[in-house]
Design goal:
Blueprint: E1 3-6, E2 13-14, H1 16-29, H2 42-45, H3 49-59, H4 65-81, E3 88-89, H5 93-102, E4 106-110, H6 115-124, E5 133-135, H7 147-156, E6 164-168, H8 171-180, E7 184-187, E8 203-205, H9 211-218
Parallel strand pairs: 1-4, 1-6, 4-5, 6-7, 7-8
Antiparallel strand pairs: 2-3
Amino acid sequence: MRTVIFDLDGTLADTSADLIASANHCFRAMGAGDVLDPVADAATAFHGGRAMLSLGLTRLEKHSDGEVERWYPELLAAYGAAIDVHTTLYPGAMQAVTALRDAGVRVGICTNKPERLADTLLTRLGVRDAFASMIGADTLPVRKPDPAPYVAAVERAGGSVTQSCLIGDTTTDRETARAAGVPCVLVTFGPTGGDVAALEPEELLAHYDDLPALVARLLPVVAA
């Protein structure tokens, strides 16, 4: 069964402003005010909570692994309390998902966002039921770029890894696809979209309107 697995942050949804807000909550609690900018630091947001804390603490000259881990639970709590204030799905994303499903393609999600938060966000956005699987950062003992979460996302969606591809936005997604031996599609509409071509994915995606045709090329229907 053909299967398309999506990353979440920066791929299906622009979550950067809410992520940055959760990090700034921590910096305000430190007495430092808003250290990160929701626009200029959007790319860091898509690398996760620890990356945002690391960047902010470095700017404050307080960086250490211990400080990052100390504040990480606080960041997750703040994010969970205001997870969908600014977050929006990218234009055409769900129309593309619907078109894939109508063509008999299974769809799922593999994200490095904690599973509970990812499930909550998708539910609040009203799209959780559109995806046959959802693997988060803590669903398995390992996370992307280890291929195991991707494989699990495909299999739980009822698909076959040999007839699957990954849609993402970062080097983590590129490395995950390479490790799993599957095609990778990287979106170019995120904050680092101009740089993803250097990662040499099999395809680049400028708008979700183009995804169904792109998937048809990457995953042609195999005659029975």
